[in-house]
């Protein structure tokens, strides 16, 4: 399921397509803002999103064989709630 599928599903139940798209976009915007501000977003009975810092690593360029330093970066991780995992 992708973003368009979520919008299409929401349109069938509640809103027209324009309002559904705006609602889905706003939810994603709120999650991004919460991650930037607090580093964690918890949605009851669904799960939590949190930031994890990946350490810098050295990789090898497959074409040239040269070593390349990949800098540290932030990754978003999702942990589902136990209620979501049931069934």
Question: Gist?
Answer:
The protein has helices spanning 3-13, 17-38, 82-85, and strands at 40-43, 47-54, 57-60, 67-70, 73-80.
Topology:
Blueprint: H1 3-13, H2 17-38, E1 40-43, E2 47-54, E3 57-60, E4 67-70, E5 73-80, H3 82-85
Antiparallel strand pairs: 1-2, 2-5, 3-4
Helix pairs in contact: 1-2
CATH homologous superfamily? IHF-like DNA-binding proteins
| SS-based class | alpha+beta
Beta strand %: 25-35%
* Major sheet characteristics: 3 strands, antiparallel
Provide the spatial order of strands within the biggest beta sheet. 1-2-5
Identify low-pLDDT runs: none
Number of helices: 3
Average pLDDT, rounded to a whole number, is: 90
CATH topology: HU Protein, Chain A
Please estimate the helix content: 40-55%
- How many strand units? 5
Rg: 18 Å
CATH architecture designation: Irregular
Oligomer: single chain
Question: What would you say this structure looks like, in words?
Answer:
This protein has a single domain, classed as HU Protein, Chain A (Irregular). The longest helix is centred in the first third of the chain and has 22 residues, at 17-38. Helix 1 (3-13) packs across helix 2 (17-38). The strands form 2 sheets. A 3-stranded antiparallel β-sheet has the order 1-2-5. The chain has 3 helices and 5 strands, in the order H-H-E-E-E-E-E-H. It is α+β, with helices and mostly antiparallel strands and 87 residues long. The radius of gyration is 18 Å and the shape is elongated. Helix content is 43%, strand content 32%. The chain has helices at 3-13, 17-38, 82-85; strands at residues 40-43, 47-54, 57-60, 67-70, 73-80.
